Amino acid sequence: MEKFGIGQAIPRFEDSRLLRGGGKFQDDRNVAGQAYAYVLRSPHAHARILSIDPSAARAAPGVLGVYTGADYQADGLGMPKAVMPRKRPDGSPMFAPQRPAIVIDRVRYVGDPVAFIVAESLAEAKDAAELIAVEYEMLPSATATYESAQPGAAPVWDECPDNISNFVERGNKAKTDAAFASAARIICRRYVISRVHAQYMEPRGALGVYDATEDHYTLYADCQYPHRVRQMLANSVFRVPESKIRIVAGDVGGGFGTKGWQYVEHRLVLWASKKLGRPVKWTCERSEAVLADEHARDSVSDIELALDADNKFIGLRLNLIANTGAYVGSDRNLLVPGLMIGTVAGVYHIPAAYTYITHVLTNTSPTAPYRGAGRPEAIYLIERLIDDAARELNVDRVELRRRNMITPAQIPYQNPLGCYYDSGDFPSNLEMALKAADFDGFEARRAQSAARGKLRGIGVVNAIEQSAAPTQSEYAEIRFDTSGTVQLLMGTKNQGQGHETTYKQILHEKLGVDPNEVVFTDGDTDRVAFGMGTNGSRSTVVGGSAIVFAAEKIVEKAKRIAAHLLEASADDIEFSSGALTVRGTDKSVTLKQVAQAAFVPMRLPPGFDGGLNESYVYAPAKDTYPNGCHICEVEIDPETGEPKLVSYVIVDDVGTVINPLTLKGQIHGGIVQGVGQILMEQVFYAPDSGQLLTASFMDYAMPRAESMCDIVVKSNPQPTSLNPLGAKGAGEAGCVGALPAVMNALIHALQPAGVETLEMPATGSHIWSALQAANARRSS
Ligand code: MCN
Q1: C-beta of 575 in contact with ligand 1 (< 6 A)
Q2: 719: which residues sit within 8 A by CB, 6+ positions away?
Q3: Mean pLDDT, all residues of the chain
Q4: Is 732 in the pocket of ligand 1 (CB under 6 A)?
Q5: What is the average per-residue pLDDT within 543-554?
Q6: At a CB cut-off of 8 Å and minimum separation 6, what does 104 contact?
Q7: Does any ligand 1 atom lie closer than 6 A to the CB of residue 624?
Q8: % residues pLDDT > 90 (the chain)
């Protein structure tokens, strides 16, 4: 085969199947005899349930079952809980309320499940839901992040009157305070990061099938971590051996972190299937998704930068309040940003840093990891602060960055918050990006825009993120069959990243097997022995490395079989491009021939363990730190406030690039999600009523093709020595730098008009209002 393997821009194998309508997405999955489920959700932010009467619904046409929280509790089913060792500020243990599948006596956010209705058809289930009589006593609610953590806020839980679930500290407080005490200048700002929803193309779903004869559960669900869903359902909910549960995830129409692993509908469809003796299918409707899903981001930060008289950064201090929503259903709800804030020090040499993060409970949907999961927040904070510092100190913002960047000579670098940057050339990312974006020509372009009555701005930010955590291992299995073709079984779960292609490239590079003869399998806990799934930009680094090590085991075994076939010593067998050759001769067999021989006892050494399949469970020693520089240019119409992206350049370092084409797709997608959050997206709860005001696309704006400009992606790969591929994660890299790049560009454009700050979403109307306020300030 020509030109296949690591580094080649191979179009995705899966595309032709998907483009021809051959995808098997969640809602494509149907089984004979299935019934349909509907979830009745709370219309209130906070209310006591005084009574709930499902009798009329139970008697409605086509209805098979109507279940309440009391029914679920009576059946003795459990729920997962957070186990991270955290405390509250007063030293008491963390208050982490578990999430019931269906509430019992209190609803705590708009969308909280109140009843689960199963009927012969979805229409009958929905009609029956309207017959459930629920008497609510309304309670005051707390939804806003900062306000919910202040004295006097309505308590979400009576057991936790101040709403503070827990806090987490990082860094050295005393050293940081000392740095601030000696600072020549201190720059302080408050930045608010909005709440968003992943808005994947395919809303979630779950189809539960209980087999009474085998006492076995099968869940078809579009989840990101099938094995962890199985583990949770087996250990925390149904309390059965894991082997009694099978999870199957087919094509997943986008996950972005929030199609995690503990959704209550997974439990409900299996439970109802067992009770009814029928498969039960639930499909989230688009209009239900913002109510039913976990949300993301949502924090308020007070951040301070200490500088010495030479404008060198000497300290960084962050006090962040993160909105966790109404429940802490598992550790997952505490990952953001507590565990991911370490890169708030960015790519800069800052000797001392300290972060204090408070997790506040509110009457909102729980928050969870979403593309970047705390790292976009971290880079947004530091990169906005540097722009604000440059403005306040009246110094050049690029120069201020250059002066403080970690140099290649300082790598490997241990940052003050515990992150270990093992590789990277941050200054060259910046210089490459400045050149590619024609930074020097900006003033001329700004003058041209001004001549057309437009404001123009440019944002320059450096990004770095922590990816592919060492706490999660990953599984790869290479299984040859008797004809010498291959099954590749992976514990990760593709959601659109192009795993089939990436993994086949790695496999081809290592074994030389024809990718057209490789069948790729993921997402099935009965077929794949183990897996941690896809999150945190880990699949290439951890799953890909597991393939490398499993391939090495295949080669070792194949050499011994080849030695027998070629009547040579195994030490004399060389492996290259899919052929095993006796060193210094032309005697050779292909790996395919070896695989065929591996199943024929007469062709093996006596007593040899036949067959050719190997697996590997790999865990990296440390996180990788993908990094890069983003430069965004915008134009704003001051008459309407409407912003427009005019250019976007990114130079990325994801280490060894496996596939430049799919990588570009990943970077593009991440940037668009960042642009969306800055310019238009927002989940908004009315502060007085706690009502969710942005539950549909009528109110929740999403970026479209016309919102974007061309994106120039350039690579500056600095391979890591932490894994055999030299790769770093890439799935979130675009998003991590996009938030500050776009926001800094907007503020840069608006600054000459007197606007010094903006909050997200920076919609045309918000920008217009900021311009009006600046005009009013100037003329007063
Ligand atoms: N890649 C590469 N070289 C590297 C690293 C990655 O060529 N050094 C390319 C490969 O094609 C690889 C892809 O980038 O398949 C993504 O690689 P990786 O960084 O390993 O990320 P994961 O596959 O683990 O994906 C997770 C990441 C996350 S955390 C979110 S959120 C996200 C994302 O991927 N969700 C996505 N990208 C998404 N893309 C789609 N279409 N849908 C989602 O839900």
Answers
A1: no
A2: 423, 655, 656, 726, 727
A3: 97
A4: yes
A5: 98
A6: 49, 68, 69, 70, 73
A7: no
A8: 97
